[in-house]
Fold:
Amino acid sequence: MKARIVRIGNSRGIRLPKPLLEEAGIADEVELRATRGRILIQAVARPRAGWAEAAHRMRERGEDQLLDPATPTRFDEEEWEWQ
Structure:
């Protein structure tokens, strides 16, 4: 697909058709990278995407246990009251 570069104030830009953005899975924020003769527009990676599903799979496999035993604190010994 070809697009024309247009003036936007002191900058330049292109208009991206909505179906193209939807097909690429791009919403409101992107990352831009430039190399000689090329500009890459990429969806911003979500830092915690998939964590909930991964935690669920870990629970199913019994891999969600603490690595170290729990260490009681003064709060646990003096202030905690089970209701």
